User: Fold this.
Amino acid sequence: MVTVARLQRVRHRWLVALALIGVTPLAGAQADLSNRQGLTPLPQLGRSAEMVKSARPWNDAQRSFNEARFGLFLHWGLYSQAGGEWRGVRTYGISEWMQHQLRIPVSEYSELAQQFNPTQFDAKRWVRIAQQSGIRYIVITAKHHDGFAMYDSAVSNFNIVAATPFKRDPLKELTAAARAAGIKIGFYYSQTQDWHEPGAVGNSWDFSTKDRDFGKYYSSKALPQIKELLTNYGPIDLIWFDTPMNISADDAKSLYDLVKRLQPNCLVNSRLGQGLGDFQVFSDAELPSRGTATVPWEAIFTHNDSWGYRSFDSNFKSTDELLQLLVRAASRGGNLLVNIGPDGKGNFPPTSVARFEALGRWLKQNGESIYGTSGSPLGPVPWGYITQRPGKLYLHVLSPPGDGRIWVPGLDANVTSVRYLVGQKPLAYRRQGADLWIDAVERPDRRDSVIVIDYAGALKPAAARGLLLARNYERTTLSPPQANDTPGIEQAVFTHSYYFGEWRHIETVTGLTSPDAAVEWTLHVRDPGDYRITLHYAASGQQAGREGWIEGGASPVRFQVLQTTQGYSPMRPAPVIAHDVGLLRFERPGDYRLRLRPANASAGAGVDMFLLQDIVLTPTD
Assistant:
C-alpha cells in the first residue's frame, strides 16, 4: 500500500524529476499526490508550465520551421570524453548528467577538458551525413548543464578553445557547413542550470544554496553568452533552452527580448519557461496523440538511451522505429528532433549513421509525404497514419491488413485517383457510404508503402467513424486519447523512467472512481464475432481488488484489478501488465460504444481504478 508518509518522502524527488524535463504536476498534485498517483496533465490541457502562451499569427520563421519536419539534435561536450564512465564507475543514466549523478566536484570534472581533443571532428562530414539522412535543421549543444561552452567564449575560459588541446571552435565550423548546405542551425543553451557556477541552479555538492546569487550568474554569464552566440555566428535559426525550473518571469522575458533584439527571426523554444517561446517542445521522448495548433511543435527523442555519448549504450532504435516516429509526428502536425551523441573523438556512432542514412533513402523517394505537410484531417486508422497537403492525402501503411483492403473512414471529397507514391501505380478503390476502400494487396516498400489519394475541391471535415474492428487485423488497440469526450474523465500523462533520465510516458485517463464514471470508445464493427479483451494497466495496493465492467457487446465482461506495484514514481518503471479478462461478442456489423467503468466505488475518495494504458481487442474463434 502507498502510505501518505511514504508519498511525502518521495514527493520532493518526484517534483524535481518532473521539473528537469519541464513538466509541472497537475494542479493540486502536491497536496493530493495519493489521489493522482503521480499523474501529470497532457500538454494540450494547458496546465503544464512549459506550454507556450501565444495566440499570435505565425510568422515566416515559424512556418518555415513547421515545414521542416525532421531535425538532428547533437549532444556533445566534456561528458562525451568520459563516455558514461568515471574512474571505473559506469553510469547507466543519460551520460550528460554524469557529473550530477555522481556528484563529481567541479575541480575534478574540469580535468576532462585536458583530455578532450576531438581531432576527428569534421563539420562537413557531419553535415553530409545530415543531408543524406533527410535532415532539415540541426541543433547542437553550445552549453549544457555542466557549464562547458563548446565554442570560443570570451565570457568564461571554461570552453573548448581555451581549456582543451583542441583549440578549435566546432560551432563556427558546423554553422558554416550547415549554412552552405542549406540546413538550418540552432544552438542549445542551458540557461538556469550550470553546475560550474555557484550562482546557478543545480550544483548543491560544491556550492551552498544559501549563498546562491542567481542574478549575478544570469547577468554575468547566461545573458552575455547568448549575446555571443547571436552576434559571432551569423544568422541563427533557433535557440533551444532547457530546464527552466524556477526561472522568474522577468528573467525569462529579458532572455527572450535579448534574442529578438539581436536576431528577430531566431525562434525560441518553450523551455525558456514562463509561457514564452515561438514553438512548443514536449517532454523528452513524448509524442502526444494530440499536438497543439497554437504554435509549431516538435517531439524530441534520442537514437539510443543516452543523449550524450555512452560507450556501452547499444540500444539504438531501428530504421523502422525512426520512420514510425517521424510519420507519427508529421501526421499530428509536428516535427521530430532525433538526437545523436558524438564520441570524444568527434565521430557519430556507426549504427546511427547507417540507420539515419537508411531513413534518408526512404525520404528521398517519399519526402513529399512528410516535408511541408500537415496533420491528418481524418480519425484514427488501424493500418498507420495520414498526412496531407491541399488536394492530396498520403496514407502511410505501416501495418497492412491481411487482405490488403485499406479502410479510409469518413472521406467526404471528390476522389480523382488513388496511387502508390513511389512508381505511381494506380490502385482500385470503391465507395461504401462515407468510407473509401482501397485494394492494396502489394506492398512495394516493407517499411511504409505510401498511397496517395488525389481529390478535387474541398475536403470536408470528417464525421467521427470510430475505430475499425475487423478480423483481417491481428489486433485493435483502444488508447485513452482515442476515447470519446466523457464528463468527469480527463486525459492525462504518467511520466516514469527506466535508467536515470530515460523518460517514458503513458497517455491515460483520470476519473474512473465510481460506477457512474466511464471511459468510452466508438467502434465500427465490420466483422462480428468474438474478440479477446486484454487490459494493459498498472495498479497499486490501494487500487487492487476493485472490480470493473467492460460493456458494449452481447454481454458485459466483469473483471478484478490486480496489484502490480506498491506505488508510483517517475524515477522507476511503471509495472504495466497485460491482463486477459474475457471475450466480447458482437452479433452483427455496425457501430457500438465500448465502455470501461468501475463496478464499485473506490475505498478512498477520488482514487482511480487503475493506471490504464490501453485495451487490446484480438479476434478469436
